[in-house]
Amino acid sequence: MANFNLYVASCVLLLTLNCRTATGHPLPSLRTEQCEQCSLLFKSLLLNITELLKGDVLCFGITSEKVVVRSKADTLLACAPSLTQNSNCMMPRNSSFSESECLRNIMKDLAYYEDAIKSYLKSPLRSSDEEVARLSPTLTIIKSLKNCSLMPNKDNDSSEEVAAQMWGSDTYSNREQMCKMMRGFHVRAITINRAMGYISSGDHRK
Questions:
Q1: Distance between CA atoms of 136 and 164, rounded to whole angstroms?
Q2: Phi–psi pair at 175, nearest 5 degrees
Q3: What is the domain partition of the chain in residue ranges?
Q4: Domain 29-80+98-205: which topology?
Q5: Contact at 8 Å (CB) between 81 and 97?
Q6: d(CA 23, CA 192)
Q7: Spatial separation of the C-alpha atoms in residues 9 and 4, rounded to whole Å
Q8: Cα dihedral across residues 109, 192, 75, 98: positive or negative
Q9: Per-residue pLDDT tens over the stretch 161-199
């Protein structure tokens, strides 16, 4: 766990520093202050999900260790040139990388998980007050990220009505599925943070 926390911290630090050092290749219509604000929001999202999964509410009594990524967004593929497997989050340069496509898929991810969490909170819950209290901050961060100027205004194919089809009447089954899905969201949040570090660096424009 200590190594993982160090990994997260190093990725976040890189993302923040890139906002300040990429002035030679700035993001379109994006001020340094806006970039830093978005970086902090992505950091908050990752840390929020990390703490959520460490708690004893959402995954209480869940024996399965399965990780599920339900979003249909191709974020991993679209942002692949910006991602590496080493622990210090150094990013390779790749002329085939499409910033707009990567951002479009990140937006689709955020929209999907927002709808999934909203619909889950309307389904039968084991401990309504506790689960709402734990998941509401996640929704607040996602909403702020959707309004972030790093995000392009693109339509998405997600909806709360479609997401609601995942949930049934059994609170344990619903919570088990949500726990697995949030583990998947955690993995995706790491991917997004690393991709945003690459985009903020401006290396793909060199």
A1: 17
A2: -70, -35
A3: 29-80+98-205
A4: Growth Hormone; Chain: A; (1.20.1250)
A5: yes
A6: 21
A7: 9
A8: positive
A9: 777 788 999 999 999 999 999 999 999 999 888 888 887
